[in-house]
Model the fold of this input.
Amino acid sequence: MSRNRLGEETSPYLRQHRTHPVHWAPWGPEAFAEARATHRPILLSVGYAACHWCHVMAHESFEDPAVADIVNALFVPVKVDREERPDIDAFYQAALAATGQPGGWPLTVFLTPEGKPFAGGTYFPPEPRQGRPGFVEVLKMVSNFARSHPEDMDRQADALTEALRPHPPEGAREGGRLEDLDAAVRALLAHIDPEHGGLGGAPKFPMPAVFALMHRVAHRTDDPGLGHAVTHSLTRMAQGGLYDHLAGGFARYATDAAWQIPHFEKMLYDNALLIELMTEVWRSTRDPLLARRVRQTVAWLDREMSAENGAFAASLDADNEAGEGGFALWSVGEIKALLGPLAPAFMEAYGVTPEGTWEGHNILHRAGPLLDADAETALEEHLASARDLLWRAREHRPRPARDDKVLADWNGLVIAALARAGLVFGEPAWIARARHAWEGILATMTRPDHRLGHSLCHGRLQAEAMLEDYAGLMRAGLALYEITGEAPFLEQVLAWANTVEGDYRDDDSPGYCQTARSAQDLPWRPRSFTDTATPSGTGLLLQAYARLFHLTGDLVWRERIDTVVRPAGEALLRQFPYTASVLQAVDFLETGLLVTLEGTDPAWEAALSQARHGAFTVRRLPNTIKSPRATVCRDGVCGPPLTTPESLRQALDHFLSR
Done:
């Protein structure tokens, strides 16, 4: 292969590298055949379009003809978009972790021609720097090892690959006990930053699945310490530089402990999960700040992230032509010139100083002590025109690149979040937008065999779906079914559940694999119940199964959850908070409610939205009597018929607090 073949791909990340002098190939049999024929190892580079350090390594090394000559001579170079092939990323991230190295992106792994990993790392500078070896040095060292010691290379690769073979989790006792779950969540309080909220120090990630579980346990057990940890963390995130105060939407993480300095890329999954979390917390606090952030983030999603099939694009880049964060940074001079007499009040409120927040520039964040809700609302309203002026000015700057891929799993997250937020905030347009995205996914991402594809970009459907695609969309379909009562949503969810059980259940141990039975391009089918930046496919699936158990009363759904949770045992607790999505399913399975609603009108819908927590499913029946009525059931026991919306709201609040 004597040319770069990425120009034939649709992935924006792969196409970013199509002009490199490196002879990149996409993942596939042709690259492995060339590696076998030429007896060269594979250089696997995995990243994503919004990854800043991926861009840095590309500019420093892959765009350099001298480095490219070395790569092309010694290796078969293969590029993978981690969002397009999360299974490949998961497998080789696990390989890197097994060598004792931290993972991340760009992921740089060296493989045998059979795809077995034997060495790797993440970002390498072109020359040795700050304790990191130089990339050219690494290339030569690895190539020399592979040529001079092929048996050692194969032995090392075989051992590392065998270490990645999935094994049943070993728990000392059965998992799934609520008291153990509650204790694990309370133990996390010791790791909450008391000043700035969030877990630990810098860098700091939002971790919405963890805080969603913490909020549920706080509400269910009436624990004010847990409740404060959640509300304080969300407030700090929503007021910090992590949040885009002009356009809406959250960045992926903060590089500092105070949430002031973001890593500027915006990911669809973060914003979906944060909308869902803020909606749930707003139910119990009625904090107007959270309501504003939900509304602003939904508006940003619809305005800037709508994609080709009516669903949503994957991400916005951290960089523009001015460099990292260039789209979001401000100087005092710019603020004064644009805002005139509004500038002093705005600069005080949003922390704008001559010194700047980061590298001499200002990142807008709500500065100063936290205000009470009324004062904060008044201040934001007073400065709304100033924010609008800055937003309009910023729109004339070169924009960060957008990754236009439509990912089925991430869209499942945002559809569910939009639908449930639409119900809670009384916004039918959000529910309609969720339906539109759902219909777009079904119309354009369903394969001829009725199975889902994982990624759609520029009309090309890529890769068979992963477990998280089915599981995420099952959650979305259940949200739409519970809100609309329309049977086709439930029918589609049940059809996908059959596909999951037939193609994704692990034959060798309890649980589910990330890839379908037909997947054969990795040594093993990855499987895990731990979350990464997104909830695990297993966690999302079990959440859907828990809702189906309550909706249908069919024990098969509980049994399927038990086959994962019981064998996992204490491993679920030992690995918390990275098992939060599975533990959310356990919590809902054991404590969720079923509301059966016969007939409805706006007052009854308002009662559902006004409940102080959303840990219930809704089954809608045709109204066969004169007036609507409802029943609330828990643990197989139903209360008396409720004949007024207020009695339904009170019953939900009573049961949900027990």
About this structure: The CA atoms of residues 111 and 117 lie 4 Å apart. The chain has a mean pLDDT of 94.
